[in-house]
Amino acid sequence: MPQHARGIPGDSPESSDLLFHGGSRNDVRYCMVCHTDQRKYGRTEATYNASTLTFTGSTYVVDGRTIGDVPNFVHKIHMGKILAKNGYNYADVLFDQGGYSQDVRNCQKCHSASGPTPTPQGDN
């Protein structure tokens, strides 16, 4: 069974649940319904202090990209304190305050270069 059909990966069943979404929506395919590039419409581009690289307001749209779009959202969550800019706040998700509990190079936890929906370089 492909990873996307097994739910959100984590180190334990507790870390794999998305209880803040009601608990039953723990399959990444549900995320794809709402967390799209469409979330940027009606929002303004984020501003930040160039000398400190710290955001000064909402970070729904950064560099023209929707932070809440699934690929961007998930990768920002995993990168955490490695992110170049500080002060992210997307609906109270503070990306630069967290991070992936494993080596961020462990892409195989979610990505695979084989199977029905291969990810290019997923086994790197």
SSE sequence, one letter per element: HHHEEEEH
Main sheet specs = 2 strands, antiparallel
Strand residue content: 5-15%
Give the number of DSSP strands: 4
User: Could you say which overall geometry the principal axes of the C-alpha atoms support?
Assistant: globular
Question: Termini separation (Å)?
Answer: 20 Å
Evaluate the radius of gyration: 15 Å
Q: Which secondary-structure class do the elements indicate?
A: alpha+beta
The number of distinct helices, counting runs of at least 4 residues, comes to 4
Strand order of the largest sheet: 1-2
Explained architecture:
Helix content is 20%, strand content 6%. The radius of gyration is 15 Å and the shape is globular. It has helices at 3-6, 13-16, 28-34, 70-79; strands at residues 48-49, 54-55, 61-62, 65-66. It starts with a helix and ends in a 45-residue tail after the last helix. The strands form two sheets. A two-stranded antiparallel ribbon has the order 1-2. Strands 3-4 form a two-stranded antiparallel ribbon. By secondary structure, it is of the alpha+beta class.
